[in-house]
Every structure is written in structure tokens, then in C-alpha cells.
Amino acid sequence: MAGARNADGLAERLALARTLAVAVGHEIEIFREEAQFAFQRKGLQDFVTAADRKGEETIKSALAAAFPEDGFLGEETGGAPDAHGFWVVDPIDGTTNYIRGLRHWCVSIAFVRAGEIELACIYDATTGWVYSAARGGGAFCEEKSLAVSRREDPAEGLAILGCSRRTSFEEYQAVQRRLHDLGVDYRRLGSAALGLVRVASGVADLYYEAHVNSWDIMAGALIAREAGAVVEMPSLDVMLKRGGPLAAYAPSLGPQLRFLHELVRTTA
Q: What share of the chain is helix, strand, coil (3-state, %, to 5)?
């Protein structure tokens, strides 16, 4: 399990985040059949269910009771960054998957303070496992330490891509083409948070999406970075205000994936 400093309350925060992620993940499971028929559309292929709202409220209330000085920013209930420190929460990353019965969804919880992502916790519904990280303390799946892939040959590489409707579909296809030409195979999961933990665990070598919101990736970005991935995205302030592009990849493939650095830099 990820180690966090005790003196400033980080260890206690991480322990609670892990407990909440599992409890809310199990709670959300119970409502899945109902969610197939009872959901609202926020935008094109962008849905919200009662389980999203209930899950976020459960997390928000428990964190406020334990750490009333902390701020909160959630996908469903909003909020704002807080100078003292604040939580960034997505109760279901992969809501469309959840509604349709695909297992690729998760609960994502991160804690940010003084311009740094300090803590991260993700409950993975595909396995029931909890991924976690504390800045400077490594990344873990349950009790097992995580490390990114060491593959150097892109012809053995596996990428996970996200496709955002906030950006050009042609640009998405161009990334596919670049990866195809390098020999990299690719998948699309429908959950940025899970894509990032797949990179952290070495299952995939790369995650890229041209636009993600902060709640989608705040926890996953720290877990991937602590597992040894190169994580590139705009500054934390920019990501919190309007989101942006994100790339996370194994350093061993860095020379071949240099074009992603340029994509993040130019589209930030």
C-alpha cells in the first residue's frame, strides 16, 4: 500500500480515501441494473446516473466530516480548489461503460495541496482492486508495488487511447496512424483513470487523450508517475480550470513517442 507522511495528516487521508473508494464502488455496483434505464444526458455521449450523484455525495460528506478544512472539487457537484488542500473526485469514471454493463469503470479520488497531487486512490471495478499512490512514496495495487513496462521495441507496444469530442476526430486518427506506423497496437477503454493505471501496472505502455478533465485523471496521473511513467500535461492550474491533453508512457519508449510531447505542448 502506498506510504504517506503521518505528520501532516496525509496517511490518514489516504487510508480514508481507500476505504471510501471501495465502499462507494460496491455501493455503485448495486445500482447498475437501475442505471441502464434511469440516466440523464449531459452532452453527446456524456451521461450521469443517480449512482454518480449518490457516490459523490457519500465521498464528499465523509471527507468533510473527517477533514472539514479540506476543499472539494467533484465532477457532479462542482466546487473549487482550496489553498489549504482539496479533494478531486470522479465517482464513476467510465459512466457509459457502467450503464451498458461493461466492467471498465472506476472510482477516482485524489488530494491536491500546494500545487502538487499528494495522494491518489482508484477502485477498479474490473477486478475489485484498489490502486493508490502518495507523492514520493511509490504506487501500489493493493499491497503490490507497481512499475511501468520496460519494453523498448514499439512493435511490441500497446497503447490505450481516449477520444474526446472536445477535440478534432482527425487529430485522434492522426495519433492512431503515428502509432500504427511505429508498430504499436492500441485499445480504447472509455476510462482515462483506468488507462493510466494500466500504464502504471505495465499492462499498457502508453495512454494518450487530447482533452481530459481534472477529475478524470488527477488520481491516475499520480499513480502512473509514481510507478515510473513519464506524465505530460499542462500545469495543474490549467488542468483544474479547463482540462487539457495528457500523455503517460513508459520511459523506455520515450524516443519513439517524442511526438506526444509535442502534441501536449502545442495543444495545451
A: 40, 30, 30
